[in-house]
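@channel sequence for tomorrow's demo:
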Amino acid sequence: MADDLAPAASLQAWWGMHQEIDTLIITPRDMGRIDAAAAASGLASYGLMERAGQAVAAAALRRFPGAHRFVVLCGPGNNGGDGYVAARALEAAGAEVAVHALGDPSALRGDAAIALRHFGGAPRALAEYGPRPGDVVVDALFGAGLSRDLPDEAVQVVEAVRRHALPVLAVDLPSGIDGRTGEVRGAAFEAVATVTFMCRKPGHLLLPGRTLSGDVEVFDIGIPGRILAVHAGHVRVNTPYVWRLAEPQQTGATHKYVRGHLAVFSGPATATGAARLSAAAGLRAGAGLVTVLSPTDALFANAARLTGVMLKDVDGEADLAALLEDERLKTFVLGPGFGDAGRARAYAGLIAAKGRRLVLDADGISAFRDTPDALFGLFAGGDTRLVLTPHDGEFARLFPDLAGDGTLSKIDRAQKAAARSHAAVILKGADTVIAAPDGRALVNENAPPWLATAGSGDVLAGIVGAHLTQGMPAFEAAASAVWRHGEAGSIAGKGLTAEDLPEAIPPWPAA
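structure tokens (generated this afternoon):
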């Protein structure tokens, strides 16, 4: 029996490993270590380059069958070596190929020099390239390791290709994109598609690199997963695989208090809509009970629009303190439409003192702009009980030094902010990053562009609160909420408003 089960168990382990690899995001520095470790393990480094270049050629032929000519632009390093392999493979397939090199090809060393020798042709200078109709550009100038501005000679070619609206297939990453930050270094190609190797890099997922990379194909060139696992950092793509084991489990004994009680603070009578959006999302995302905590002057405005969500008047610290005596009330959302900075700080203090969980959003974040360390001190130590959901402007109010540091990527900023605040941080945007105090980080990619609408963030805060109150750890609650929020945007479709989102929140994904 054991022998019969062994193949299935091995397959499951293999599949699990490759699912993990599929989620990895590798920085250029770590990719350099992986390449070195692969060579040290006995893998022929030129063999890896050969497989990479062949993959680029295959993608070029598949994607552009009508190309009149493939123009391969080769740089002075290993990215250029990939280009020479691709050029040779394209010629062998019968395509017309022109190769142009940046710098002196005779100065190439190592695998790139071998690739040039196997190509056998004489590349022309990069400056000699003259675009013509029917060209497809294969960009092998610089890969993900670029950390300086493009040289003027390359910038001129980028501009010429753009003027002629020629399609570009990028090797590893469009030249001009910083592989660590996703930023444009002076100028950059805008690719129809990018072929990268083993894993995606931050520049494929962070803006504007994500937009400029086009469709990203990840090709396995043969580096073992064990080497990737040893040298990879703690950054992943946000997918259910990462957090599925933390999903709330429903059993026959489940009742509404097991699923958790979530409370959302309302703003004054003229600003109640944001809290109701959060509350509706929290209920739809799985909280067993949701209560809007409303100032007295807003009770009628809220009562007229709430059905499944309960309502409770809270007019100050004494009211909240009394409410906190109920141990079943575990999680709070504070900030959407709240308005009163002083009261927000006081409420956060009471919630922290009672050991409850808090999602701090919008006005709740801005309330601590002058005293961020006071907020961080409230939730320091122990399990992470605070989730912060800032957009870039709100992030700068709590972390002005991190926001102003141009050397940091968005991932770096979120990681440092999470460590400083002892919070799970959702740094929002089209390339939302979720970070934990221990250094783990995820980059989200499933949110459609039409999700950027007023009130969308209020819905996200409610989903986070629902996940927290069902017992999920803060980081996993935040990451899964961001993913379900993105799925809701796709389900609701183009033209959605925030009011459409709660009903579009999907069930938990199948395991």
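heads up for whoever presents: Confidence is low (pLDDT under 50) at residues 1-18.
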